[in-house]
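Data card: per-record layout.
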Amino acid sequence: MQVISPDLTREDPGVPPKPGRGDGGRRSSEKRRGVIYTIGLSYVRAGEIWAGTDDGLVQLTQDEGKTWSDVTPPELTPWSKVTHIEASHSDAATAYAAVDRHRLEDYRAHLYRTRDFGKTWQHVPMEYLTEAS
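The structure for this 133-residue chain is written out next.
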């Protein structure tokens, strides 16, 4: 096994907005409790890897893990969970991130899209997905 990254999770996600909910029984003094929850490999560019964490971060490497950039959408906060990342099949700069925010009592579906390697993100309305189906 070869390590290709430092810890990509939040140093300290803080206490959930409603203590005792969503924290898995952990004490607030514990640090680094997040995990990489999803990985998306580029179909277009070798060495490009997207990583999403269960504490609300999106990270990107374009050089097989030598360097990583935090490209998290600004709307994502601690206690958001990036459940899936899908890199575009035709454009290296484009990726999609599905986010679950139930631990923040937000039960809406959240899907984000970037077309510039995570510099900017757009929230994709679910109505658009329903109509496009």
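Known properties of this structure: Residues 126-132 form the longest helix (7 residues). The mean pLDDT is 86.

See the next section for split statistics.
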